[in-house]
Amino acid sequence: MSDALQALYAGEAERARALLGPDDEFSVFEAAAFGRVARLQSILQADPSQVHAFSDDGFTALHLAVFGRQEEAARVLIEHGADVDVRSTSAIAPVPPLGTAAFVRSAPLVRLLLERGADPSPLFATIPTTTLADLLGREQVMDIGIRPLWPSPRVAGPAFTVRCPQGDNLMLHAAIHRAEPGSVIVVESGDVDYALAGANVCAVAQRRGIAAFVLDGVIRDLAEVRELQFPVFARGVIPIPGAKAVAGPLNVTVDCGGVSVSAGDVVVADEDGVVVVPAARREPVLEDARAKLDREAGESLDAWEVAHRKRIDELLEEGRGMQ
Questions:
Q1: Which DSSP string do the residues of 232-243 spell out, in sequence order?
Q2: In terms of pTM, does the model score above 0.85?
């Protein structure tokens, strides 16, 4: 990695620019990250495969254009065939370009990627489950028994669904090798007597880019899972493992925590709970959630207090009128 890119990663944009050499020495990654569009086009014309290349630290040129907030460079890369949903291979941030755009808070790049067909699921990681619950209602919120097993960050991704009969974990162990990176593996089990997974299963899932487990059941090896920092939302822990004897289909509709979950539904989980956004509603729900957060961000606590008291007083008055 060049010194200029290292400085950019460190948030030292001015120092990064000062470290740049001549444009004709730029790699595709530097040209993308620093918006040298002419150089970028020259590289891609000479070697179109560079649009799909990964840097030594696991990012594509599109990731770096987004990280550097270089909208025109991102457009050029997409026009040359860059995959808008490709995930970085970095263990630190295995995200698609849209996740990077959300991280750097670039609304123009978020719009561009969505316009070009990017999966919007990564944006749900910026939406609290409380906001989604307000919009979707109780039927899309898993019961309180399914909790984070360690203080993990908010996770979001499309559901990869699994059904395990009581006492058996074969299909979860199969799912970690079949689910796409970024997926949240959701398991129907309802069994708290035998563990669905342990540390090695979680480690392999993490290595394959799985975003999290959401399990209507229990796991084991919690200390090791916590050390891995792999997000698991489940009913608890138990030291004894389940059997591996019952095969079944994957990506069928399951019931997890009292919510019906289908493959491709967006699962959002944080310290407040787990919410499932039906795939058919994800775009309008995302739009409504972001609008709600924008409104709330623009309202002071004083204004909220006044409006809240007015509404409560009105409800009290209505209640007295009904007595």
A1: EEESEE-SSBPB
A2: no
